[in-house]
Amino acid sequence: KESCPTFTNTNPALALLFQACLEGLGKQYELARRNPAREGAPMYAVLDSRSRKRNGFIEWCEQWDIRWVGSRDKCIPDEVFRQPLDVIATFLNTLYACDGWGYIKSGDEQVQIGYGTASITLARDVQHLLARFGILSYLREREHVRGDKVFIGYEVDIDSKHHVEKFIDEIGIYGKDLSQVREIVRDSDWRCIGSDDVIPKRS
What we know:
The protein is of the alpha+beta class. The chain is about 35% helix and about 20% strand. It has helices at about 10-25, 55-65, 80, 85-100, 120-130, 160-170, 180-185, and strands at about 5-10, 30-35, 45-50, 100-105, 110-115, 140-145, 150-160. It has a 4-stranded antiparallel beta sheet. A 3-stranded antiparallel beta sheet has the order 1-3-2, with helices on one face. A hairpin with a 6-residue loop joins β4 and β5 (about 110-115). The longest helix is centred in the middle third of the chain and has 15 residues, at about 85-100.
């Protein structure tokens, strides 16, 4: 018997959004929490009431070639690149809600919009989609230490005034209020903290 696909995120708004997306795929799907509230980040199982042998959501993941994909091998499906800008904006809006951020640097009127991933291919794909909106970003490599192991991660950063404004106005981050970030960008003598002069290539 195959295990159920799972979804893990600490933001309850994203869990509700995921449930709504599942309902769009079919009424037989249900999102059910697997671990008690006291045991870390919520883990939800995707249940298929139609069949006990083969979960239809697994088949959907296989159709999109996203099943058994490790964190370092993630990429954005080709179909997303063929969508109109409004659909891509919704996609990025939700993607950033999972692994992105928008914050004001402590003690300074500097702002950064960022997205983090272990996959350099996914990072470059995000850069490519951002460029569709005229938003230029740059790629940073980061080292993360866990115990005695060092892992390499990648950040897609947007921190020039014009492009941060475009991101907030045209994409945003689902479930996150960026109004304070917008005020600082528009109303202060805000400066760029990085370089964003490279147009990314589709990998």
